[in-house]
Amino acid sequence: MSSVPNCPICTKWQDDPDQRVIELTQTKVSLNRDQFFKGYCFVFAKDHVTELFHLDEVLRNQVMAEVNAVAQVLYNLFAPDKINYELLGNMAPHMHWHIVPRFASDPLWPRPHWSEPHQELLLTPQEYRERAAAIKAQLNKEFPWTC
């Protein structure tokens, strides 16, 4: 497994243990530190890769199946009005998705979650672990093939 020492995504799993959700076959899933959008997760490639087209078709399909599984579980757990998917990598050039449950009642609706500053919602370490455990349990229940 390849990693880059100064890449914040490569080191995220070690740096933020309370936010870890689950390690899947091709990706890892972590909660975003800011939980203003309840359930906001990162799904990131285990290997340091910058572009989706760098993956062969089989691996690319496996990665996308895992992204889809996480999105579906967040939808089922939190009942948002919409799931937002974002794959940019300009600031952290390591393939990672922002999977963001969005609600029509949130103050930034319908704009992108990053369109305006907002007050961060930080959880206690225990609250991160509980939220991560709920997502992990649902993934294991709904998508046991990913775990």
CATH homologous superfamily identity:
HIT-like
Helix content: 25-40%
Report, as a whole number of angstroms, the end-to-end distance. Answer: 18 Å
How many domains? 1
CATH topology tier name: HIT family, subunit A
**Element-level helix/strand string:** HEEEHEEH
What is the CATH architecture descriptor?
Answer: 2-Layer Sandwich
User: What's the level 1 CATH class?
Assistant: Alpha Beta
Shape: globular
Largest sheet: 5 strands, antiparallel
Number of strands: 5
Structural class of the secondary structure composition?
Answer: alpha+beta
Strand order of the largest sheet: 1-2-3-5-4
* Unreliable spans: none
Average pLDDT rating: 94
Strand residues, percent: 15-25%
What does the radius of gyration come to? 15 Å
Count of DSSP-assigned helices: 3
Written account of the structure:
By secondary structure, the chain is an alpha+beta fold. It has a single domain (12-109, 118-146), classed as HIT-like (HIT family, subunit A, 2-Layer Sandwich). 30% of the residues lie in helices and 18% in strands. It contains 3 helices and 5 strands; from the N terminus they run H-E-E-E-H-E-E-H. The protein has helices spanning 12-15, 57-78, 125-142; strands spanning 20-23, 27-31, 41-45, 82-86, 96-102. It has a 5-stranded antiparallel sheet. The protein starts with 11 loop residues before the first helix and ends in a 5-residue tail after the last helix. The model has no long low-confidence stretch (mean pLDDT 94).
